[in-house]
Amino acid sequence: MNSMQNLSLDSLAQMLVERAIKSGASSADVVVVSSRSTSVEVRNGEMESTDSADGFDIGLRVFHDQSQAIVSTTRSSDNDLYELAARAVEMARIAPPDPFAGLADSEQLASDIPDLDICDKADPSARDLLDMALAVEAAGLSVKGVSQSTGGSASASRYEIVLATSTGFCNRYARSGFGISAAMIAGETTGMERDYDYSSAVHLKDLEDAETVGRSAGERAVARLNPQKVSSQKLPVIFDRRVASSLLGHLSGAVIGSAIARGTSFLKDAMGSVVFAKGVNIIDDARMLRGVASKPFDGEGLATGRLDIVEDGVLNSWLLDCRSARQLGLQSNGHASRGTSSPPSASPTNLYLEAGKRSLEELLGDIGTGLLVTELIGMGVNPVTGDYSRGASGFWVEKGELSYPVSEITIAGNLKDMFAELVPASDLEFRGSVNAPGCLVGEMMIAGT
């Protein structure tokens, strides 16, 4: 083992920054990611596949005046890293200038690195994961009406991330993640329907138990049997919380600083305007304890925190990294995300829509007749205009009650109109990095037969 491989990740990152500066870079930063993951998949009570991977990646970004270059490697020998630094600087010298690119100013860098409790010491073995996968599948298969399984799975992962910059920042954090899932098929021959459920968490003990997840997958599949078709009409639509999070995904794409700077967002002129109904609050909180996407600093070394993107229906902020902030004449709000082979770009962390005051059942009662969407298909959304059209399935609502399953329909509208009349239910759960309660949209076009 050579001297480089004996260095800590912090020392390795700092050493590479120093080499880039000695090679002629005006400034530089380095991301080092060390990872370990194990996953197990089963089907019909037998192991179908298992995978275990250890990863090590280094990403070096260097600047020569206003030009930048990024190189990455999975090797850490002395020669490899000397060549990496020299090659990056040579690439930067011939790259076109970018007046908005550059490291964060030193006064912007995070000075506090809080413990967000995002790394669990639990380390389940492959055998433990196999038992979890078998249990979640067995629970699904035990549901009356389930005819077969398409599989159960369990996984565990751990990442350690180090960021070092030539402006003096060098810090790290570690993150763990665990997950279980099951997918079941109900019915026979041409009348089969499929559905799934899952649980993911930063800490192993926060996972839902396998019995709950598996049974939910089976019950969801059975509930979809014998779907009917409906005629085309305009009616209220309720998005089940499992798919309502996709609406937040469309919002986050529309408030990313780079999209605003390019003018390719349907919300490009909406800052300070009423975008949602009064009372709607949408938050991105990178320092949520045990949050799936929590982190103490962003991909450029800036402190993270809570950002109220929408407050009482009013759009308050874009998601900004340093480059997009400079383009817009603003300051980054600590939302840079970065891989080892690409420059930083803004993205959400723990994004959620605050729960409303009324239950999903009360919202169903309000609409009388309409549609509860539980699955969306395709990505027919225009980010420039906000036009929205997606395939869907779910349940028809009559007199405020679920009447029968429906499929092969399309729902359409415009995100501006949908956001303006959106009413959140009270059933918010934190299950991933983007979370929303069920959401009522007052009227959409439902295209059926």
Could you please describe the fold and organization of this structure?
With 449 residues, this protein is α+β, with helices and mostly antiparallel strands. It has four domains: 3-35 and 51-108, PmbA/TldD fold (2-Layer Sandwich); 126-223, PmbA/TldD fold, CATH 3.30.2290.10; 233-247 and 355-447, no CATH class; 248-349, no CATH class. The chain has ten helices and 19 strands. It has helices at residues 3-6, 9-22, 78-94, 126-141, 210-223, 241-254, 257-262, 322-328, 360-367, 415-420, and strands at 27-43, 46-64, 67-73, 146-165, 170-186, 193-201, 233-239, 282-285, 306-311, 314-315, 336-337, 345-346, 351-353, 370-377, 387-398, 401-414, 423-424, 434-435, 439-447. The strands form four sheets. It has a six-stranded antiparallel β-sheet with strand order 3-2-1-4-5-6. Strands 7-14-15-16-19 form a five-stranded mixed β-barrel. Helix 2 packs across helix 3. The model has no long low-confidence stretch (mean pLDDT 95).
